[in-house]
Design brief:
- It is a single chain.
- The chain is mainly alpha-helical.
- Helices cover 65% and strands 11% of the residues.
- Strands 1-2 form a two-stranded antiparallel ribbon.
């Protein structure tokens, strides 16, 4: 799944926006596999970057983070990140309630 976000980067005419894509770990691993295949077939780094549509910095960051992962490991990583995000949201909702109960039990209201 490829998500596209827009961020305002200027106020000239109120319409200037910069677009960027967010890749899932599974998509990243797929692109890294393609980059490896292209490199083995003799493609240059510039050609690889052009085909993948990413910058050199992004390629190096992806290789450092996901370089040795399989597609199933990337899928598991994404599932764990989503679960972690859900748990953090739940914890964030529970903390104010817990503080309110503590305050009530101490009689500080």
């Amino acid at each position: 799944m490829l998500s596209v976000y827009t961020l305002p980067v200027g106020r000239e005419n109120g319409s200037m926006v910069k677009k960027f894509s967010k890749h899932t770990p599974e998509q990243i691993v797929r692109k890294l596999d393609k980059a490896r295949q292209m490199r083995e077939s003799g493609s240059s780094t510039v050609q690889i970057l052009t085909v993948l549509g990413i910058s050199e910095a992004t390629l190096h960051r992806w290789q450092a983070t996901y370089g040795s992962m399989s597609k199933s490991e990337a899928k598991e990583l994404q599932r764990l990140r989503e679960e972690n995000s859900r748990l953090k949201r739940l914890l964030g909702q529970a903390e104010p309630e817990k503080a309110a109960w503590k305050e009530l039990s101490e009689g500080n209201f």
